[in-house]
């Protein structure tokens, strides 16, 4: 079974640039996807998600997603601490 390759946002934007060039040459979506070694569904999803984004925008998006994940983790830990303090205050230990 083949492992899937996770593309970075910068790589995706680069492949979408290649896709635009290939489409300008008159190739179909199936041919473009085959040349980029991805499925048509993946290509469509990338176009919907990243659209006309440039590489700098993709880097910024990745940084924002990483920061958002970190903040969600911190919030979860804070909620656990808050619940533990509440139980201690009520005398349930």
UniProtKB/TrEMBL annotation:
Alphabetized Pfam families for the sequence: HTH_Tnp_1
Coiled-coil annotated residue ranges, if any: 61-88
Entry keyword set: Coiled coil
InterPro entries: Homeodomain-like_sf, Transposase_8, Transposase_8_domain
Gene3D superfamilies for the chain: Homeodomain-like (1.10.10.60)
GO molecular function: DNA binding; transposase activity
UniProt xrefs under SUPFAM superfamilies: Homeodomain-like
GO biological process: DNA transposition
The protein's name in its UniProt record: Transposase
């Amino acid at each position: 079974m083949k492992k899937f390759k996770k593309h970075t946002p910068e790589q995706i934007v680069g492949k979408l640039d290649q896709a635009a060039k290939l489409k300008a040459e008159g190739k179909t979506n199936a041919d473009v996807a085959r040349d980029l070694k991805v499925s048509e569904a993946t290509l469509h999803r990338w176009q919907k998600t990243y659209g006309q984004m440039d590489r700098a925008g993709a880097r910024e998006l990745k940084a924002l997603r990483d920061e958002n994940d970190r903040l969600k983790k911190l919030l979860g830990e804070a909620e656990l601490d808050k619940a533990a303090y509440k139980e201690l205050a009520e005398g349930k230990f």
